[in-house]
């Protein structure tokens, strides 16, 4: 009979067993395997003894069984290694048992690599070690299981022990499809739990915690949460135990006290806030994945809120750190909410009511970070979560009477033809009774009866409609002390009636703007009353004195604005038109007011311009309300009227002769600064509705309305190039960034969406014509034509060119670029009495750059130039003049533009394959280098030769050894013999130009000198020397301060392009000169410690190596080597330097 080993419990499967309450199902299965193994038959034993392998396997299993039983006994005795009175003899027994078990488990794994029961036995031992708090030994056991489990999952050849670090033991690959074997899944889940517990108790240093945090966040590495879908077949109680243990372990791992105790130090060891937060987030996600009933919702959200607050409190007070923390919190909250929404009891967890107050606090705290980050979608999601419990909004009352400029026929007046006193008394009494009703309602008190109150309001309406009241409202300007008794009485009675009328109106407006449940039955009557008040005042204005007109106009507009504002219900589209009609009524009232020509004293007249400004503001407020609820199409009419009224009001305010106080002046300034934003908002609404053409015109109007003077654009354009003026990152004015966006949008829509002609898109034609196009869908009632000065218009055209350069691959951009260049040249044309030579030269350089990519002859003809050389010559002519006109503040850029013009002219000669391209390229390169030398000499007010001498290691040592007087003499005298040596040496023809070194030029450098030159640079790993004075101290700092550049990176790229073309033409000397000039400019721009300086130095040194000027090349390499060793430049440049340096050393 064959012999097999199996659990003795198989023959007693029906006998119930009572496992420990603390043991999981996996512990039970593994313990049964490892502790209750017997031999089934003697016949099997005989066969096993006949086979060495079977005998060895039997012996190993018995040893594992005995060791496991020993550990079980120790566990049952309650002994723990961490106890203060732990017996050493017991510890020795445990260590012996573990050693025996480990040894024989290895034998079993070797004999039966595919037997899962072996790993179940190992897992049982691992569980007992965790119970005994033998953490290091438990981790060793996990390390032996780890490769076996990986072998079971992906089939890799197992190793005796995992080579992974302790954090790597937490990760197991998740095959696709995932395993379905229940026994294997039990082993893996328990392995995760035991290993994490042991790792937590032997917490690694904070640096290793960062590794754990990254591993748990990596999508390619898998821990408990990644295995949840596979663990779904496991018993719920077991899975909850694994997840809760993972939560507890990860939270403890982040505790500074736990880390300090594990590292045996009394000092508190802090974990990086982001690392601790990531670990706590993972722990909370594990807790969120448990089954219902494991944790109460309030406790769960309290923990989430606590972890977030801990991160905020521990985050350093810096913008970058706070931004990173905010992003981490937002991401974590979204992930956590996604997990919670998958729970069966999600309704309880996400209930935002009194039973789940912690979730409400969590959402409130979440809102703070979403608001800071400008995360609209998150805010909307939070809003939906908070509204899960709540009622609908109150119903909207039916719309009452709509105001109209044409009044209905007035009913028969209740006032009879009586004496003036009786008539005025009845009118006054009626108005006072209506005012009393309004006052009672405004205080929240109850009126006697609703019908009586409505009757009183209706009586006031009838009085205001009667023509008799107009006699009193128009007699207010009569003097009280008039000689005529009747006039004096009428003036007195008119004052009383007017004051009663004003009180009635104010209380009605107050009730309308502050509705309550008690005023609901009266809302329609109150609105009708106010409509009648407006009609009454409008009638009074039509035939009254200037003083009365002014007072009634103020009251009427105030009432209309209140009616329009309260009539609008953002959720009811039927209320939009009545609100718009109210503002139309206000416009008709203002149109009827007298103009300034009606009086010699403008201050006596109504401020019509201010009224129009207020009407514009009312339109804009309603439009803003509609825009916020995404009613873009309904907001368009209000925005359009707002923009037109605002433009009209500004034009009137500029022409008015009335005195303006400081407060009113601020209001006009604010309107002027914000008008372009209203046009932009209108354009956005058009874009949202898909009306690109009207959006294009609205964006154009926004540029028209931009406050060029207030923003300082005109002043800054006289001293800054476009690259600095429109640099959003460094610009302190947000309005200029907005202007940049407007120009880019106009250009993009016209070019890529509307496919307009270049003449229509160019801002010169756009800004010089009205924006009211022939399109019938957009009607501008006011023509906002702004005559921009050439400086402002030109800078906008240059910005348009900058944007076109970013989309030059699209159709039509070439033609548009030509048109914009042509318009910019015309704007800066001296023939138009404009003296802006520097800015015109800047556009000419853009023209040269553009022509380099396009056919030259045809485009030159379109730009009215005979050739490219003519363009370069004009740049030279314009910038060589001493009188720069309005560009005097830009004179610092003259040399840069002249150098660029020469380089472009040479490049164009090569591009068109000119027969004399070598001569032209050589001449232009030499002229450019000469200009660079003149530029530096003219701007640097100290001896550059001294700084150049210090940059050599040889001269640096000499400067320390001699006195200042001797050093000074050496600086002056030393170049002379060098020049003599150069003139005396007969160099070959190709090496004639670079003969500027102080040593004799000889293609074959003596070996001993070569070694001397290179000896200091061969040892790259030598100790770092202090930085030389020429690299970082006062000389270079002064040089940087004296030179300014316009787009230096682009300028430097031009030098590099020219050097490459010179190399192709075999003009090696001129190439070296160009690189030397670029190197000096790089040093003046960013200092010696910069990528640009080192890059150019590499190229220049390489050319010297080609020319055989090894000593000069070595000097450049030595200086660059110090910079590379300092670690202050990018890695790419450092690698390039090392490769070139190695090449040069080989040449030496």
From TrEMBL:
Composition skew (Low complexity), residue ranges: 1-16, 403-414, 971-984
Region (Disordered): 1-26, 397-416, 971-1015
Organism: Panaeolus cyanescens
Name by which UniProt lists this protein: Separase
Matches recorded under InterPro entries: TPR-like_helical_dom_sf, TPR_rpt
Highest taxon of the lineage: Eukaryota
